[in-house]
Every structure is written in structure tokens, then in C-alpha cells.
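Lab notebook, bench 4. Still working through the backlog of constructs that have no structural model yet. Next entry is a single chain of 334 residues. Request: give me the C-alpha cells for it.
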Amino acid sequence: MKHFYILTTAITSVFITQSIAQTITATGSNPVIGETFNYKTTSYFGPGTSGTGQTWNFSTISGASTTSNVVSVSSTPNGSSFPNANVALTGAGSTYSYQKTSATVLQNYGFVGSGVVIAYSNPEDLLRYPFSFSNTFSDTWAAIFTNGGYTFYRNGSSTITADGTGTLITPTATFTGVLRVHLVENYSDSVNIFGTPTVTTYNNDQYLWYKDGIHYPLASCYSLTTGAGTTTGGSYYVSTSVGIEENLALANSINLFPNPTSENIRLKYNIESTTSVKISIINILGQEVYAEEISKLSAGEQTIDLNVSSFEKGTYFVKIQTNDSFATKKIIVQ
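Model written out:
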């Protein structure tokens, strides 16, 4: 019995460790203004199986490269239509997705594309934090929008379930400690055309793979069904530096003072081992306005003084990137 107890304890300890590693958090998952995500859009690929300890091998998929930038809502052409959102993600062409990030939830407030502005009066919860294997929740959401001179009423419901953990293999990298999320959306658009009520229904069945510390899904595949048929597709994340992830310890060590500032700001941070470092400052449009690379810094506390007196007033983000990780902090120039 004693040996059995020790074995059970060891197994339980491993399970708890894996569960913690594969929990996604607000800090580790929410998009941050100034970030750029490179990814490839693909044809649909099968999502594989659910459960713990999975290996999802998508190494043979391929697609077209595209980029999404995280920018401020106010910097976008239709930002005033989304007063409750606090970040916007750019898409192909002149498309924007508007979200609200917080410590407890990531919400979808709508999007703009093809000249149509869809602002949600009741937002859709995309993730609730912290989120771990077997966690699940449901949400309802709504929007009123105009298209082609007609007013549409959209009402929807979503069910989000973390249904798998394990290792994800893409054409560019292998990621361990991954959480798979299954999203099912059912919604309808109602419109009255020349006195005739018309309702179009939609079902979106989508799988997304997340790793805490990377603020964008590592992969995604979807199947969207309407009365007109079914469209499918997918995507996978391509980091500009494969394997670079957000380092929470590095982020917590960053000290910027004075902040706000109008001239100079002192940056202090800690690194755990000898590494090269790039210090950059990014504006709310996602543009790099300052960059400095430093070779072979030794482990320990680092200090650098930054002059921002020539910057326009506003919000900026200081980004520290090492050989294998990065962290960002916000500063205000006044």
C-alpha cells in the first residue's frame, strides 16, 4: 500500500504540473498593442483527437503568408464605433477585429470589413481566464449593423471548451505545453427586405491551439456552415523568431521611471543568463520608433537610459527581446 501511495502521489504531481503548464492566462494570452503576428492561412486540416497528452502533427500543411498588427482602437478608421474595445487587430486588406482585454476575459466587440461595420452591443467572450483542460463556458452576444442599405440584427451563442493538451507540430516549430480550445458558434442574421423577413443562420465549428506566453493562436481550423453551403479554412502561427516566447519573469522585473515622462526614462530589468538583447520602443500603430541591440549581456540587473524628448505625446511600449524570450511594458510620453 505504501508503494502504491508513493506512485499515486508521483502521478498526481505530474498531472498537476502539466495542468498548470497548459493553463492559459490573461498575461500570457491577451494581445498587446505594438505586437505583430505573422501567420499563414491554409486549407482546412483535421483537428485530431481530444484529451490530455496529445501530439497534433500538422507539419505538412502549407499556406499564404499574412500579418496582423495589434494597434490602438483610436488609430483605426472606425474606432469611434467601438468605444468599449481597447485593442484592434489588423487583417487582410482594410479589415479590423476589435477586442477588449482584461485580467479575466478576452472579448470580441466586432469587426470591420468590405465597408461593413459590425459593432457588438453585447460582446462575445472568447476566453475566460485562467483557462485549463476541461474548463468550459457558454455566452450569448448580439449586434445591429447596416449592409447594402438594410438593417441586420445578429444574435448568437457560443460554447468554448478546453478539450485537449499536448504537443503541437507546425511546419515551422514544435510547441509543448499547448492547450486546444474548441469553439462552437451558432448565430443568425435577421433582416426585412421589401417587407419580407429573412433569416440566415450560421454554424462555426472551430479549433484553436494556444500556448501561454504567445499572444496569438498557434493554429486554427474552422468549418462555417450556412444555408448557402460550407466554407472551411485554417491557419498557423509563424513567429519572426521561432521559439521566442513572452517571459513573465522578465516582464515582472522591468522597472521604468519616471513614467509618465517627457524627456528621459530609466529602464531596469533582469536577465537570467548571458544573452544578446534588443531594446525597442513601439508606438500605438505598431511602428518601431527606437531600437538598440546589445551583445552578450551578463546575467543580472541591467540599466539603460532612454531619451524620448523627441517623441510625440502618447502611449508607447518598451520591448525587451533576448535570444529566446521577450517582454513589453507601457510608457506614457507627455
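Notes after review: The mean pLDDT is 88. The helical segments are 2-21, 26-29, 248-253. Flag for follow-up if needed.
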